[in-house]
Structure formats: C-alpha cells, structure tokens
Amino acid sequence: MTTSGGTAGRSAHVDTFCRDNLPPPNSWPQFLFELPELRYPEQLNCAVELLDRTIDRVGRDRLCVLSPEGGTWTYGELADQVSRIAHVLVEDFGIVPGNRVLLRGPNNFWLAASWLAVLKAGAVAVTTMPLLRPTEIVTLSDIARPQLALCDSRFVADLLAAAVPDLPIVTYGDTAAADDLISRTAGKPADFDAVPTSADDVAMLALTSGTTGRPKATMHFHRDVLAIADTFSAHVVRPVADDVFIGTPPLGFTFGLGGLLVFPLRAGASTLLVERATPDELAEIIAARGATVCFTAPTAYRALLAGGHAAKLTGLRRAVSAGEHLPESTWHAFVEATGLRLIDGIGSTEMLHVFVSAADDDIRPGATGRAVPGYQVTVLDDAGAPVGPGVAGRLAVKGPTGCRYLADARQAVYVQDGWNVTGDTYVRDEDGYFFYQARTDDMIISAGYNIAGPEVEEALLVHPGVLECCVVGVPDEQRGQVVKAFVVAAADAAPGTELAAELQAFAKQRIAPYKYPRTIEFVDALPRTSTGKVQRFKLREPGATAPSG
Q1: How far apart are the C-alpha atoms of 366 and 377, rounded to whole Å?
Q2: Where are the beta strands (DSSP E) in 288-433?
Q3: How far apart are CA 27 and CA 414, in angstroms?
Q4: How far apart are CA 300 and CA 308, in angstroms?
Q5: What is the Rg, in whole angstroms, of the alpha carbon atoms belonging to the chain?
Q6: Spatial distance between the Cα atoms of 264 and 286, rounded to a whole number of angstroms
Q7: Residues forming beta bridges with residue 443, ordered by sequence position
Q8: pTM (2 decimals)?
Q9: Which end of the chain has a smaller Cβ tally under 10 Å, C or N?
Q10: Predicted confidence (pLDDT) per residue in 198-238, tens digit
Q11: What's the CA gap between 506 and 526, in Å, rounded?
C-alpha cells in the first residue's frame, strides 16, 4: 500500500493552522504502508493507543515511569494525571483541537504526562529543548504560533525573557504556587474523553536542531508516532514488557521522544526518565535501577568506557546509538568491554526516527545497518538516479513517515521525486548494508581528492590520546581545502606540538596519507547543539576555535 500524499481522515482540528500550513500534497514524499501493522484506522489518537490501549493489555498497576531517586508512576497513575492535565488545558485555558502547546522542561514525569495530555486533547505538541535561549524561543514561537506554554518552573526565566506576545505560561514543579499546573490538576477528574483525531491530523511539531541556520518545523501525524514504534522499535529494538528504558536525549529531540516515551509505552514497558546525567552518573543509575535498554549518542558510549564503567552496564540487553555517526572503533571497544553489540542507526527529525539499523547477528561492524522493515532506502547520484553498490551518493528513504515542513520552501530540497533526501553521503554494499561517508556538505575536497571527515575522525579516535574529535575542511590557497582536526585530548594526554605530530603520523598509518590532518587544534570541548550534535559549520568559520570548558 502506497500513497503520494494528501489527507484521508476526518480532521478533528478546530484550529486549522497546521493543516493550512502543510506543504502542497504534490511536494510530499511517497508514503509506504506495506507492513500490515502500519494500516491504521482513519480515526486515531496516538495518546489513546500508547496509554489507554496499552493499559487494556497490561493493566493499570504495571510500573510505567520511574525516576533515578526512586519515584514511580504506574500506568494507571500516569493515565489519571494525563486526563487531569487535559482538563486543565481545555477548561482553564480554552485549548481546542489543533491549538499548539509549547512544552519546555527536562525529562521527567510531568513533561511526559503533559505531552500525552496535549495529544489526548487533540492539540499539537511542540516539545522543545529546555536549554533554548530567548532568541531561539522567539524564532520557534514565530514558526509554531503556540497558544499556551507548559514549562518546568526551573526553566521559565528564558521563556519569560523571550516575551512572546499573547502566550500564557503555566509552570509545573513549584508546588507553592496556586496556579502551578500540578496544583491546577488537583481538583480535576481522572478521566477525559479523548478527542477522536484523524490518523493524519498533525500531532506534533518537531523543530530541527538548526545546525545550518534557521530551524524548520517538521509536522508529524498521529499515525507517524505509532509508525516509528511499529517499525524500528518492534523490528530492531524488539522491547519486551519487562524492559526498563533509559537514556540521555531530551524528549524535545525525536530520538529521545521515541526511545524514552513512545517505544516503552507501545511495548507496555517502563521508562526511567533522567533529567540530566554525566556518563559517570548514567552508569550508576543503570546499575542501581536495573535499566535494560539504553538510548544515547556515540560520544556517551565512548565516555562510559573511558570512565571504566563497563561492569555497571552488564544489566543492559540493548544499547542503541544514534544522533551522530558511530565510529567502528567505538563499536568494537564496547563489545570487547561489555559483550554488548551496539545497535547503530540513522534517523532524522524529518523522518521522526531511525530508518536504517541492524541488531544482533544482523549487525555488520562499520555499517549503519540495512533498511528498517517498513522503509525503502537507496543511494542517489546528483541527477537523482540510483547508483550501484560501492558508489558513494546521497542517501534517500521513503516509508510510513516522511518530511512535511511547516510553510518552508526547503521542502523541495529535502523531498525529491518522492524520496526523502537526508543530506548524508553513503555507500551501499551488495547485501544492502549502508556505510556512512559524511554529511553531503561536509565532504572535504583537497587538491582534487574527496576526503570524508568521519573517516579521518575514525582514524584519530583509535589513538589513546584522543577523547573526541571533529574533522573539517578549511580554506587553503594551494589545495582549495585542507583537513583540520579539532581534538579533545584524553585526560592522561598532554596536548601540544608533540602529540599533534604523533597523531598526524598515526593517521598516516591507518588511512591514505593524503587524508591526514595537516592542522590539529586541541580544544576543551566541541561546539554542540542542544541535541548534542557537533556544529561543524562553526568549526569551518575563518579563525574558528571550539569553546572552552
């Protein structure tokens, strides 16, 4: 079953802002619903499916949400709070289906409950990173036009400083405040008649991380939220009801939203929501609370090993890595230290979650994986034609989810001839495994040679003196570009001229000599977005240096 776009269900949205600002259907990607589990009914509210229907299977008393400090909510307790918040939204603030509600806070019980309540009330969730600054909040609000903001009281200062016109702000967590969200829910009923949204009503707006400029709002339907659970989670992660999920990505990042809320709820499992944790703290929590499924970035897995925490990870049965390219050296080191084979994957905010991955014996070290069941993936040349195995080109994907930007001309860049073109350069082998080369705009062309920055990074990361690194091309009069490496040295290494020369010689032994970094700059940290992605564009700027601290 395929479709090229358009909407089918009877919309429940009274506020039609989202539907009015969908891109024209002829600019949508082709959507595929070939798996039987992806053929959803026309009327569908994903909050009902994730919570109420799961309770029908597992009961109200099963543990659902956990905190590192020992707090717990059962599925029934979460459902009751979701209903109470939905009543607050509708009765206290007049929220109607289709209104946008901005959510701001770290991963905790109340953010999770608020997200579900917004969807149950038929509104549209705009979950944001809690560390966004006022100017970023202004930009986001200009795009999404929210009618209400629910904000953790500890993170309200920047939201207030943004001074978004006509945006009521309700905080939670400050129990002394009479108008706090938690106080408001106290007198509300523990049941709420969910709005019968269409499967293709917009459920959420997810903002891209803005690594290259003004962020884009990606529009995802109620059916999309379930689709990521019924493809990547069900077929690759394969959770069971006894699993305890944990991870570091915020719920405002679609990697975190799926891995730490949607997937466990769909499986009837529990989720251990951690507001913030260093690698040392994460390892302690995993061991103390019996976590079994972990979602985090490659950098964090490397830091867990560097901190000597392998023994604390023995309870994990699944460890998922995404958000950035997973170096093969990190994969092998993790297997050697823990016996656990990291599940690599590539996804995007536009696709909502992971669409290339592999698990267990299907893993091929060095490859990101194969197409997740439900998706088709290929590699295209510059003219849009598929290339054969072994040829580098642009990664392209189609499946049950896809790119729909809110009123943004960049729709025509991401979607081409029905494919979602991700901006990544990949090579596919004869067996359908995909091997990452670089972001398409991060390929370095030096003296006529094409050099993939991640390949150079991979070579450097094997050296014990390197904790993290990022490789970019910088302008050079003779060569056009030269390779420059920004290196965060390991704790026991001495950054300086001697180590730089050692790293250059080391790289020449592992990769073709023309690829070695001609310049190495030691830095305290790499610049990252609020989702943890390295901001390579900042390092390519003339005279760029990474932040200290």
Answers
A1: 18
A2: 293-296, 318-321, 343-347, 354-357, 370-371, 376-380, 393-398, 415-416, 419-428
A3: 10
A4: 13
A5: 23
A6: 16
A7: 452
A8: 0.85
A9: C
A10: 999 999 999 986 544 578 999 999 999 999 999 999 999 99
A11: 22
